[in-house]
Design a protein that fits this description.
By secondary structure, the protein is mainly α. It has eight helices and no strands. The radius of gyration is 29 Å and the shape is elongated.
């Protein structure tokens, strides 16, 4: 009888340990991000581990995890985004956009990308050197006909001098 009481007492004490959800089970149960993060923190899982486990269970949730962590300021934005980039590098653009929703600056995103060995062009916004500006010969709004170079021997540029046949 004493052994039975010991077994029952032990099972009561250990039950909460086994009942705690893991990140993987929370993801498969489609729990909201706040529950996933709260349970992981209760299990003393570090933020980098949470991102790795979310990406391992369902990589497509990494941008949502980024939004949750960045908007709730669970750490510095650069740290959060770096963890997300490392966990799901194929989703770098989506992760960057998720961080932007919570106020991440382009500098923070660039620093995170470089620290995570992510090509900054995959996450950055278009720059003036992008070639897509109207009138710059790029796509998107260029107007007018292309200008052909003058033929050899012509004075097409009106730069003076004679034609090529004069010696």
């Amino acid at each position: 009888m004493k052994i039975l009481k010991t077994i029952i007492a032990t099972s009561i004490l250990l039950a909460p340990i086994y009942a705690q959800a893991t990140v993987e089970s929370d993801v498969s149960d489609k729990q909201p991000m706040n529950i996933i993060f709260d349970n992981a923190f209760a299990d003393k899982t570090e933020l980098v581990g949470i991102f790795n486990q979310i990406a391992a269970a369902d990589q497509t949730l990494t941008p949502d995890a980024t939004t949750y962590a960045a908007c709730n300021k669970l750490d510095a934005v650069e740290t959060i985004v770096s963890f997300a980039f490392l966990a799901a590098p194929d989703l770098a653009a989506e992760i960057a956009n998720a961080a932007r929703e919570c106020g991440a600056t382009e500098e923070e995103l660039l620093n995170s990308a470089l620290a995570s060995n992510i090509d900054p062009t995959t996450i950055g916004e278009a720059t003036a050197a992008g070639g897509g500006l109207p009138g710059a010969g790029g796509i998107g709004g260029a107007t007018g006909a292309p200008i052909a170079a003058p033929s050899f021997g012509s004075a097409g540029g009106n730069g003076g001098g004679s034609t090529a046949s004069d010696s």
